[in-house]
Fold this sequence. Notes:
Layout: E1 11-16, H1 20-32, E2 38-41, H2 50-53, H3 65-68, H4 84-97, E3 104-105, E4 109-116, E5 121-127, E6 133-143, E7 167-169, E8 184-188, H5 192-201, E9 207-212, E10 218-221, H6 226-234, H7 237-261, H8 263-278, E11 299-302, H9 305-311, E12 315-319, E13 322-326, E14 329-332, E15 337-339, E16 342-345, E17 358-361, E18 364-365, E19 373-374, E20 378-379, E21 385-387, H10 397-417, E22 421-424, H11 444-449, H12 468-477, E23 485-488, H13 491-496
Parallel strand pairs: 1-2, 1-6, 2-3, 4-17, 6-21, 7-16, 8-9, 8-16, 9-12, 10-11
Antiparallel strand pairs: 4-5, 5-6, 13-14, 14-15, 17-18, 19-20, 22-23
Helix pairs in contact: 1-10, 5-9, 6-7, 7-8, 10-12
Amino acid sequence: MTAMESIDQPLDVIIVGAGISGIGMAAHLKQDCPQRSFAILDRRTRPGGTWDLFRYPGIRSDSDMYTLGFAFEPWGDEAAIAAGDRILHYLNHVIDSRGLREHMRFDHKVLSANWDSASGLWTVECEAADGKRSSVSGRFLFLGSGYYDYDDPHDAGIPGLESFGGDVIHPQFWPEDYDYSGKRVVVIGSGATAVTLVPSLTDRAAHVTMLQRTPSWYLQRPAKDALANTLRRILPSKWAYALIRARNIVMQDFLFKRAREKPAEMGEYLKDQIRASLGEAWDDEAFTPPYKPWEQRLCLVPDGDMFEAIKAGKADIATGRIKVVDKAGIELEDGRHIDADVIVTATGLKLAVCGKIAISMDGKPVNFAEHWYYRNCMFSNLPNFAALFGYLNAGWTLRVDIAAEWLCRLFNQMDVWGADVVVPELKDDSSLVEDSAFDKFSSGYIARGRHLIPRSAQDGPWQISMDYRADRRELRDAPIDDGVLKFSRLPVHAAAE
């Protein structure tokens, strides 16, 4: 489909985002609701979302591909922790094997979406790279636009950065074919991006330093899953994939819950792994975070590659606060100076709810912080609308699969009943006890954007949960007609009967 090609007739479903969430929703629609028309709108020129945007050295999955992959499409590579190009290949295979590319409209940056109660339609306003505007109408709006700001990463306010005499790069905007050969590189940050970059940059850099203000918790896992690869050789691929996926889900759930129940024990387990890898290079200060395991997402270190780089003298970790950046490098508050030719600011993302799209109802702006989650993907008193936010403690795709499956069940039931509009109705929230899963995580991007996040109750349907297995049971077992969802027909359709 060419850029900005018009869509004359209202669609059944408008999907925003051609990344993991949008592709997953579209694949489920194609399989479970073949009668429904849909289109996927994306601001970029290619599918893949994050995996097409991020091109920094070494980019890879931060969870295993048996849980980051879709339930309906086995992951076929030997590597369980996969490089970004292999993930893109997998996503494109899903797109082409299920005929989704013909539904994709690229160069469609969605600016706003307004629900019109009289027509029962969402009207989505889009803009192309050349500034040309267009609009698309649809009965149901699904946002798979991710959770961070594509345009503006978090600015950590590093003092004196403008005085630096070398190159300053943010991983979100890594220059194509950038040559760092023989250069001294300082990566500021200690999260998943920094942990990926540091060992990858040692292939050509003279030396790489990870400068952290606060240490992170690290989990080492083999890049290749020996049992998975053995099962793939002796069992049909779908069977092997399902078995390993189920095992990994249980393992992830166990590790997360054990970390919450016995944080000191889990902390020692994680530190013991690193001690064993580093040997004499062990530094207690560098690997002792001031927070408990899983209060922030664990950083995955496949095959201990970062620790191998440190042990080999190709990389090191400096812990301290930045006093000022000067022409030659970075001066810390404790007086140390780190010489640098390149500074990489892996200082985090900026949270963006609903892709910064201006959502409105009958022309009135919607403030999502005033609405409650419903069944992990819809929102109180918002008709024909869903949006995806994945798991903070597991693979993002796990939520995509169960939410898309439930939404397709909802759509099919609406077709049986002849309903045009569905809304999770909440007239009085005074009895709800707010207990958001987001408040149990201290990650910087969540803390900075907490005021933007919709509300979540302690239990019941009015919540977003971080317990995948419980969510899966609920979404599969809960009746569609649960007394909360309100269904209606448009007057024009009712009159036609």
